[in-house]
Amino acid sequence: MIQRTIKQLSEMISVINDYQSFENKTIQGVCIDTRNLVMGSLYVPIIGQNFDGHQFVEEAINQGVAAALWQRNVPNPPVHLPILIVEDTLEALQQLAKSYRHQLNLKVIGITGSNGKTTTKDMVTNLLSLQYKVQKTEGNYNNHIGLPLTILQLEEDTEMSVLEMGMSGRGEIDFLSRLASPDAVIITNIGESHLLDLGSREGIAEAKLEILNGLKANGKIIYFGDEPLLRDKLDHYDGDATLFTFGKTESNTIYPTEITTTDSGSYFKVNNIDEVYHLPVLGTHNIMNALSAMLVANEFHIPFSKINEGFKSLKLTNMRMELLEGANGVKIINDAYNASPTSVKAAIELVSSLPGYEKKVLVLGDMLELGPDEVDFHYEIGKALHPEKIDLVYTFGKLGNEIARGARETLQENQVQTFTNKQTLIEELKKQSKPNTLVLVKASRGMKLEEVVVGLQT
């Protein structure tokens, strides 16, 4: 993590007050929350809609932080304490991270996309770790506050940093990319998330492509080549970066030639390589994420022959295609972290294709932030279900009712049920919970369907 004297900090951000009396004091790390203070760190008070971190500055210093920032327009700064007055504390945090990033001798991989960012981040980190010291975005620290904090956590001897870049509107990826200055970027796909804010998939594609704006000279661009919205834009790219594509079709730089799906993951081969790769992660859609990680790793001198070694120890962030065992031997796929039409279809395709189960049950909740067509998106998910591949569909939430409405057009009435109470849903699921039964739990994060997973395990 960052370790600098106050004097050095003043050369990285613009400080307004006189700090000479404590300029030789050293800070180690940065924190923004007094509930998670780090001794000797720099406390940055953030001003939000319903809170102001400045009210905790004295408490933070009394608890052992080395110094704190203070925003100029906030009255009554505690001048008897080691504080650095800045124009804007959030902007100072971001500038500090940007300065620190350029002081480090490392390579940065930036990852964005509608789905699969975190999974791809985990895969890239595992593969690069075969040869380098790597640090990655932890949790959901992928926005205008989280990304600077992630960068400031990087160790001086870190060789590779894998940074996830999230967004909800235009300009956000542009800002993050310019802050992080990536050496290579991955765009996993273009889905329907954030249609509410961006209006169309075209708008989403344009927002995701902002990740190119901070790309270093002679960088590398790796993107999902089966997506026309990306192909159309990048076919006319005239920058100095090298472009690579991944996807299912033979027009891509890398694509699968054979795929075998099991409940322990996937086995697959790719063009021009004899190796059979084992990805210990459920879902053929995750092979696409793996292909992008393989391209990045190979460009940074990890040979394709070592990729299996990196995949072997792969463990994804929780609630992403986790295969768990519940009470009575039922198998549960916990994919409750997030959902969009694209990711829900991929999860259903996985469940449909897995062999060895007598009964397959879908538990599907609302997909959020889909804009004015949200009802149609949910209805189409249900309508596309195949009666020979899915036995039961349980939906949760107001929009989940639309999935059920569509499902009733292809499945029998007794195969579809809607729920508004999670405990009732859990009790009904437990009646179906037997060995050789597979249950998929999938919804947007706000629906908190991981509570259903926990209920099935007890």
Automatic annotation (TrEMBL):
Recorded superkingdom: Bacteria
Reactions accelerated catalytically: D-alanyl-D-alanine + UDP-N-acetyl-alpha-D-muramoyl-L-alanyl-gamma-D-glutamyl-meso-2,6-diaminopimelate + ATP = UDP-N-acetyl-alpha-D-muramoyl-L-alanyl-gamma-D-glutamyl-meso-2,6-diaminopimeloyl-D-alanyl-D-alanine + ADP + phosphate + H(+)
One protein family per Pfam: Mur_ligase
Statement: the UniProt record of this protein carries the keyword Ligase: yes
Domain (Mur ligase C-terminal): residue spans on this chain: 319-445
GO cellular-component term (any): cytoplasm
Gene Ontology BP annotations: cell division; cell wall organization; peptidoglycan biosynthetic process; regulation of cell shape
This protein's name: UDP-N-acetylmuramoyl-tripeptide--D-alanyl-D-alanine ligase
